[in-house]
Amino acid sequence: MKFIIAKDYEEMSRLAADVIASVMNEKPDCVLGLATGTTPIGLYQDLVKDYEEGKLDFSQVTSYNLDEYRGLDPKHPQSYRYFMQDNLFDHVNINPENTHVPDGANPDAEAACAAYEQAINEAGGVDVQLLGLGHNGHIGFNEPCDVFPKETHLVKLTESTIQANSRLFDSIDEVPREAYTMGVGTIMHAKKILVVANGAGKAQIVHDAFFGEVTPQVPASVLQFHPDVTVIVDAEAGSLCK
Ligand code: GLP
After folding, report:
1. Torsion, CA 17, CA 58, CA 91, CA 234, rounded to 10
2. Element (DSSP H or E) covering residue 155
């Protein structure tokens, strides 16, 4: 595992964007695994800037997002599809048909999840998977549990995640209670994994996930077993890791 403490959010974002850019430059038709949340917004801005400066070409890229709220229309401003359009896809030359987010509007969980898992496999798997970190160690929406979930599946969000994500909704009642997410197994199959985290609020979980015991109670801890992981945090999030 490569563990990098950047001096601030800007440096974390730039270094992380460079990891993705180098995969894209090496393999123009790569498959990107993408994440939402506030953490990767700066990194997406840097990728857009690189594209505008002619340094990056998304024309052959395919993308698969980690997760999506169940029951939210893709046009809902808090849907992860909307987030991706707004923060990346609408600003670069990615072919819209090559961008994939689990279909939160499909009420048939089994069909939606199986189709997503199959599509990732048929695309040849993910070349680089970007991950943020939930305060409880969740990756995608894989919440703390007794057994690492293998494939894309339906999850019931924990109260702490509903609470944390309510800041982005008008009221906590509007936060969906369920989501579709890649499994921990799906994530672990990515050839390369890139984790970003920032802010003092993530310091404890960054320490526990990458320097603590590997346990499904801290889903991100399983990444310690992946052969190619880069973790990039800002100084605050890295403050308990010396
Ligand atoms: C959400 C997403 C995760 C994300 C996490 C952290 O629950 N499902 O993919 O990593 O929140 O978000 P933030 O980056 O805003 O702290």
Report:
1. -10
2. strand 153-156
Closest by CA to 91, choosing from 62, 51, 34, is 51
Taking the CA of residue 202 as reference, the ligand 1 atom at the shortest distance is 16
Q: What is the residue with the minimal CA distance to atom 12 of ligand 1?
A: 37
CB 196 within 8 A of CB 209: no
242 pLDDT tier (thresholds 50, 70, 90): confident
Cα 141 from Cα 230, distance rounded (Å): 20
**Residues in contact with 66: Cβ distance below 8 Å, sequence separation at least 6, in sequence order:** 33, 34, 35, 36, 129, 131, 139, 140, 141, 181, 182, 187
pLDDT in tens, 109-146: 999 999 999 999 999 999 999 999 999 999 999 999 99
Nearest CA to ligand 1 atom 13: 37
The pTM of the whole model exceeds 0.85: yes
Query: With a 6 A CB cut-off, is 39 part of the ligand 1 pocket?
Result: yes
Cβ of 165 below 6 Å from ligand 1: yes
